[in-house]
Amino acid sequence: MKNFTNKTRQSLTAIGLIMALGLGTGYALASPGGNHNDAIGKPGQEATVDRVIEISLDDNYFDPESIEIRSGETIKFILSNQGDGLHEFNLGTPEMHEAHQEEMAEMMESMNMDGMDHGSMMGMDHDSMGMSNMDKGNMEMGGMEHDSPNSVFVQPGEQAELIWTFGEADNLEFACNVPGHYDSGMVGAFKQAGPADAS
Predict the structure, then answer these.
(1) Which N-terminal stretch is annotated as signal sequence (predicted)?
(2) Looking at the 3D structure of the chain, how many domains does it have?
(3) Domain range enclosing 23
(4) Distant-in-sequence, close-in-space partners of 23: CB < 8 Å, separation ≥ 6
(5) Tell me, what CATH number does 26's domain have?
(6) Residue 94 Cα distances to 19, 101, 173, angstroms
(7) Are 173 and 43 in contact (CB under 8 A)?
(8) Residue 11 within a domain
(9) How confident is the model at residue 102 (pLDDT cuts 50, 70, 90)?
(10) At 159, is the secondary structure helix, strand, or coil?
């Protein structure tokens, strides 16, 4: 029988978690009350990109740790996972991240209760489940897809992109909400510098 490292187990568990997320919860652009949150912004278009920012995701931190933004600015983020585990780049308010973390923890607990713990994931043939197809961090698994516009998952050694046009919210963070990562310090701040057309 094959031996698995703790990090392999964590990655397999995270993949199982993403499978659950692929069922579509719609948390990404919703406030904890369920209302659409336009203040954080909206998906941007390649043709309107004002700046390109490269971000390294590691175990468990971002480099850089903070980014200055302007309301109305469109930024293309190029995300490189330099770590050994799966990481997420998610844009939102602290309240949105907290709600998402609770949701992910509940899904993890549910998977464990259903027998989908570390051990049960190890014997699965992920290719036959459709889990090997990665496209810019949007995971497609057996017809399920995690494609929240303000969130992307990045496998170890891989790159992904996210284009975002920022709104007026001044309490935005970028974070990894894989269980335990946010609490370990994998969160960064967006610092509002004013409107994009300011000189």
Answers:
(1) 1-30
(2) 1
(3) 6-195
(4) 144
(5) 2.60.40.420
(6) 24, 10, 7
(7) no
(8) yes
(9) confident
(10) strand
Q: How many CB atoms lie within 10 A of CB 50?
A: 15
86: its two tokens: 């799966």
Question: HEC profile for 101-151?
Answer: HHHHHHHHHHHHHCCCCHHHHHCCCCCCCCCCEEECCEEEECCEEECCCCE
Q: Is residue 1 part of a domain?
A: no
Per the DSSP assignment, residues forming a β-bridge with 67 are 190
Indicate whether 146 belongs to any domain. Answer: yes
67, part of any domain: yes
Mean pLDDT is lowest, of 69-73, 83-87, 115-119, 166-170, for 115-119
What does the alpha-carbon distance between residue 181 and residue 195 come to, in Å, rounded to a whole number? 32
Q: Does the bond joining 32 to the residue before it have cis omega, within 30 degrees of 0?
A: no
**Could you give the CA distance from residue 62 to residue 153 in angstroms, rounded to a whole number?**
14
- Structure letter (DSSP) for residue 29: T
pLDDT in tens, 110-134: 766 655 443 333 333 333 333 333 3
Band of residue 25 on the pLDDT scale cut at 50, 70, 90: very low
Q: Residue 1 CB: number of other CB atoms within 10 A?
A: 5
pTM above 0.85, yes or no: no
